Amino acid sequence: MTTPRTDTGEIPVSAVSPQEVERLLLGAWAETRRTARGVLKDPQFHKVEGMSTADHRERTLKQLHALVEQGAVHRAFPKEFGGQDAHGANIAAFEELVTADPSLQIKAGVQWGLFGAAVMHLGSREHQARWLPGIMSLEVPGAYAMTEIGHGSDVASIGTTAIYDPETEEFVLHTPFEAATKRFLGNAALHAKAAVVFAQLITRGVNHGVHCFYVDVRDDEGRALPGITIEDDGHKGGLNGVDNGRFRFNQVRVPRTHLLNRYGDVAADGTYTSSIESPGRRFFTMLGTLVQGRVSLTGSAVAASKLALIGAITYGNQRRQFHTASPTEEQVLMDYQVHQRRLIPRLAKTFAAAFAHEKLLAKLDDVFSGRDDSDENRQELETLAAAIKPVATWHALDTLQEAREACGGAGFIAENRFTSLRADLDVYVTFEGDNNVLLQLVAKRLLADYAAEFKNADVGALASYVANQASDRVMHRFGLRRALQEFRDTGDERRSANWFKQPEVQRQLLAGRVRQMVVDVASELRSTAKLPMQKQAEVFNEHQYEIVNAAKAHADLLMWESFTDALERVEHEPTKQVLTWLRDIYALTTIEETLDWYLGNGRISSQRARTLSPYINRLLARVRPHAQDLVDGFGYEPDHVRMEVASGAEQARQEEALEYYRTLRASSEAPVDEKTLLDKKRAAERAARAR
Amino acid sequence: MTTPRTDTGEIPVSAVSPQEVERLLLGAWAETRRTARGVLKDPQFHKVEGMSTADHRERTLKQLHALVEQGAVHRAFPKEFGGQDAHGANIAAFEELVTADPSLQIKAGVQWGLFGAAVMHLGSREHQARWLPGIMSLEVPGAYAMTEIGHGSDVASIGTTAIYDPETEEFVLHTPFEAATKRFLGNAALHAKAAVVFAQLITRGVNHGVHCFYVDVRDDEGRALPGITIEDDGHKGGLNGVDNGRFRFNQVRVPRTHLLNRYGDVAADGTYTSSIESPGRRFFTMLGTLVQGRVSLTGSAVAASKLALIGAITYGNQRRQFHTASPTEEQVLMDYQVHQRRLIPRLAKTFAAAFAHEKLLAKLDDVFSGRDDSDENRQELETLAAAIKPVATWHALDTLQEAREACGGAGFIAENRFTSLRADLDVYVTFEGDNNVLLQLVAKRLLADYAAEFKNADVGALASYVANQASDRVMHRFGLRRALQEFRDTGDERRSANWFKQPEVQRQLLAGRVRQMVVDVASELRSTAKLPMQKQAEVFNEHQYEIVNAAKAHADLLMWESFTDALERVEHEPTKQVLTWLRDIYALTTIEETLDWYLGNGRISSQRARTLSPYINRLLARVRPHAQDLVDGFGYEPDHVRMEVASGAEQARQEEALEYYRTLRASSEAPVDEKTLLDKKRAAERAARAR
User: Fold this and answer.
1) At the fourth CATH level, which superfamily is domain A144-279?
2) Could you identify which of A199, A358, A585, A600 might form a hypothetical disulfide with B606, taking C-beta atoms 3.0 to 4.6 angstroms apart as the criterion?
């Protein structure tokens, strides 16, 4: 299909095909997403705002049962137990739950994505047969007892102990001090009958590190079993449909066979065995299933960002404020440059995050289906998830907030859901891996990759690399290279825009930044290799901020690459053009955010830099007429959106008001403005004086 | 008092005097603040988390009655009615309410700061005598009916009409279309018996613009009076103790004498008179009392930021995570550079905002006390409030969020209040003047000042100015000036730090940016002066983003100046030293945020720019040991803070855990780590092979 257009942005306003956008975004699991969305149109799944915590918790439990009835939550489980062995599809469907109620999503995630997944991935065939049916049917609601008051991100250091007693062939689970209390556990406060509990496995005087145990926690009447103290975490900033709570164990005995023993086992006599020799690698293998949580939160964050933008952009296209350019008609919010600046770059980043997430999900499916479950691919999946999850979840909070502000007071009313979604998603940035900690994992991987590359380089290559580095430094130090650029580059706006819009330029800028930041940090750290541990830690800490920033830059690049790859899949040309502008907006606003780095490192001349912001503003104005089609392309229906601001009511109100004034002006009853009279009077006085 | 110190930051850890910091921050209304804080230690005023909306609303109403009993809310009213004519003190006390419950604050603000203040400032002596006693005693709860569904920031365009009927000597209040429904009105949904209603005053066929009317809205049984439809705005993102609602008027008749007629009156025969000839000036004069709301929200936002930092910094000094530098002791969070980066710049900005607010409050007191109520001073107050309110309220949301994230999962639990305060304060950024709209007011004032300055300049000065401008431009265009700087400035870190820490350099950088941004925008706009309105509006819109950014830069400068002035008032030398570093951190992180501008405009060389971030990191490490004393200096007691993370419980838990491990290591029962055994085994194997 071809629609007339030119390169200067003159394509018809209705050029974007929302259907094409939808097709593109639904991605590989389109049918699953459509099915899941269909299920979630049912009002029984929708969050009721302003409900009491107690009622919300009960409602969420009921919703979970309803999901079981609909067969909506078993895709990841083995076929023999009624699942589909479909890991990517499972997560694609799971992500959609956020549109109904994030509490529903997280409680479902605890039950099937954490509790159930631990039994499935860490347990034996026998464990699965014994426990999965009850977990899948929700006959046995369960908790995932990993986090402690004193240890969240540093799971390896948790304090709970599981000491093996060969006399009775039992493990003795114990909370040795208050900080080792399990905390923030979904399902724990009220509903869990059992839990998977992570504890230091100690047998024959040796601590084999963190392992996972299946533990019954409540009797049939819902009372805590002997030795287990359960407390309620109480009201939270959001997700109050989830009953988070705490467990303390006082010498609680569980049968030896309750150790989920896929990666490490204890024989009746207390002998420990494992298929993985290194305790470190064993630990990370056992924790590997956690990546599913990170991937699914990424997708959920993208879905919430989409809802926010549907609300704010629809409203921005209908609400009018200030007689900016006409005395009779107020201006639509989306026509204001600042409004475009607030919403369209976030729209662009939402697309980027959506495409990056789709890649992540495909990789997860490769790994978990066993289709490509190499160590390398698994590590790549984990690094990718650790990079994208922080950026996508922070982006969701930022977008929900900006959208809420862009709707003014209306954005604050619960019926418009921005504040509710934001409150619920808040914790997504610190759970399933604190964002700042995840970024440090990414950075460590980047540094390790760089070190490996360096080690493998032959001496000649190395020497020339070092020489290049050195001359680079001299060039930078004396600003020579940039000064030369500037004499040549007089800041011609058109030439500058032509440069910025080239994908190769964007790639070089984004990738060059990651590369240089890693090189800079690595060279600082290399000199410390022979220092004592404490000193090394100090130097590392002195560069921690840079390290985190390098990881963020890496995530930016990954998102840009995903967006750029996705453009190849767009068949409808005008849609492709608009999405290309949107990709450019993503790239250029990302570069703009750290423009000081590009300037300070001589990557962009100050002449060019000064043209960047105006060029972005022009791109925003170019995309602006298509903003509605783009959010319509998210494919959510009114039953998913459920926001007054997106209902069209504002448009009706504006038309009614406009009609009222139009009729009034045409009638004889229209009052005259005092100001008009005053202006006339003053003009008459001036005329009199002039005579 | 002198404490030994050097310029390199080696001052004792306990060098900061929290008492001195407290004295400094309590400012001019220290006694009032202390009294208000004393009252608010009473648990009856404290927000109960997780309460239902209905219960919260009733509780808040009761709290208002309790405030009346305590004599805590009448300071601004005239002495003859039992007030104190004390405007600055009134707001200082009002701000403290946020620590108890922001709903309490806002409901009190509606009753006395808006409803009561409208009667006081817009009404006659007779109006005051008639209505103020009931308002002050809360016998008559009231609403402030200004905002409509269709008009928030653009009050001049509201749709509600008040048409004078000389036959009956009444005004007929009417809502002519749905968008003119009054909305988001505190007290409206349940408790208001009366309201001040803003409407277009029309008499004898002339619209005299927006005026304010005192209107009874409910009878003694709480039913809406005839012609008035009242609806509930329902659940909100926060502030659910305030019963927001809507009014619609259907030909509601109010006596002529209910027009609050201080600035405009209608005689029995319908003749309109006003002491202010210009309808525009009259409108802005009537709206002038709104500035009180902006000033008080600024102070409240600062108070909430303080609470957030007390929580996160106290916890950051106690919570430990990861064995970064020692195998037996985990590292305290505040020792991580990223944690310092997250919290200390926000601490610095909180001080800057506090000092700027103190200035604002002093100016408000000057104006409202009549001590210095010139037109110029009033405009200056309004511009100052319009600049600081956006920055301070956004800062509060940002700080509450970062503090919540810095406490991980604990930050999300309601008992730690971060999420609750954030939810309640969210709307502070859009009410009492939408932040983005306020910034545009500031920018317009900056542009007007610049234009006036230009007009007054004599020809010679102007010519030389233009010449300077031109050579400046050439210098910038060819990067000459910077290139020269760079040859001279080889990026020596010490010299660079010495430069950055000079107050004069900071001032020049911050002030120079505002100046240049205004000049740049003004020169773009000047060329449009003769174009038609629509075209002018277009060009203005094309620079709207720059304009808003110029206003933000202006606010940054004001905050820096306030901080710098406040340093003069510090008597305790070591405290002064630490606060000076903190001021430097505020200045330099602010510059760092827009470093691209300084680079692109040749204000900072790229050599220097590269030393900025490391220098900030060193300053953060220098302030870090004093962070606890600084937040202790906020002067809030446990009854104000009420956060588990700030209670010291974490410290006790850490000590208990440390003691447990210490005892265990000393005993014979300590398990050996599998990793230790493995390392030994491998070493033995290597030794065997070597033999």
Assistant:
1) Butyryl-CoA Dehydrogenase, subunit A, domain 2 (2.40.110.10)
2) A600
